[in-house]
Amino acid sequence: MAVHSFHVFDRKGKTLFTKRYALKDSSSEQDNEQLSEQRKLVFGMLFSLRQIVSTLAPDTEIKDAGLHSVRTGAGTVHNYETLSGLRFALYTDNAKQGSGHAIRSSLKHIYTKLWVECVIRSPLYTASSNGVMNVSSTNFEPQLDAYLRSMPWFK
Amino acid sequence: RPPLSIFLLLPPCLGNREHNNRIMGFLSLFIVNKSGGLIHHRPLGPNAPQIGTNEWLTIGSTFHSLHAIAAEASPLRLPGNKNPYGADDGIEEIHAGGLVLQCFQTRTGVKFVVTAEPGTPDMEYVLKEIYVLYTDCALKDPFYELEMPIRCELFTQAVDNLIERVEKNGPPRR
Questions:
Q1: Which helix (H) or strand (E) holds B13?
Q2: Which residues in chain B touch residue A100, judged by CB atoms under 8 angstroms apart?
């Protein structure tokens, strides 16, 4: 199973961090604008699906509510959302189905142990949505890479 | 319909119906035509949420758009954007807290969507069978107009029987 991309969005839909993985053949030469448009689609889709899903769900109390994963014929996006509206999205292919729980707990780990430690606790962190947070100045990306590569489902 | 902020806490024995040791949790069925209009919706079990007609229409058309957007937003693409059935690629399955949703799109763009509680077995079988029942009861009905709402008593009854049969026996083992 291959990881293809990873995005972090804030509550308003702004991309805080994004990275593409596992492009063996870089035939898809998309420029930055196309990628940015694609990210807007990702965020919009996850946002709207969350609303639909909460309407369609039965009226019982759910421990881990919210959208977990969306699968199409081409791949799956795994979604982890925090109470503050921070959203982590991971695109994989459909090679190994049924590892949804493992990936979800990985996303949770990425948030609690990597994002909080590297980004939020960084002295350069700006909590307001107007401030520009430069995630590349923190240690987040190398730590994220190391963590993902250590996962058994990452190729 | 009570607002979503009121959650009813049901004990597990009422929340998951067990029938012959099979946990059955089918929730709802809805069918969307190729323009995104809702042509059918119905509950499939007792835990199905109460959703008003207008809200169903919104769900139908929103799902129709998101179905296509999901294929475009993905960094991966199928060749020609077509899945092995010949239909355009799109949402096939959604996992969320308390809900699993499966969608089957035909080559003509009709989308069959079934929702169920997590752990409900045989969702894919039921989804395909509902498609067969649609072809038998709605498409072969000489008075049924394509893309219009399905109001065939035969179809409703057949889906009732299907759910009852799957709950009792499970899908036929070939």
A1: helix B12-15
A2: 95
d(CA A88, CA A79): 6
Whole-model pTM?
Answer: 0.86
**DSSP states of A80-125 as a string?**
EE-TTS-EEEEEE-SSSTT-HHHHHHHHHHIIIIIIIIIIITSTT-
Partnered with residue A18 across adjacent β-strands are A7
3 state SS of B60: helix
| Phi and psi angles of residue B37, each rounded to the nearest 5 degrees, phi first | -85, 145
Give the nearest chain B residue to A92 (CA atoms). B76
Do A62 and B7 make contact, defined as CB atoms within 8 angstroms? Answer: yes
Strands A67-72 and A15-20, sheet pairing: unpaired
ipTM above 0.90, yes or no: no
Q: Residue B76: which of A61, A63, A74 has the nearest Cβ?
A: A74
Neighboring chain A residues of B92 at a CB cutoff of 8 Å = 71-73
CA atoms within 13 A on the CB side of B97: 17
**Tokens 């729980």 label which residue?**
A101
- pLDDT tens-place string over residues A10-53: 999 899 999 988 665 555 556 788 889 999 999 999 999 999 99
| Contact status of B4 with chain A (Cβ, < 8 Å) | yes
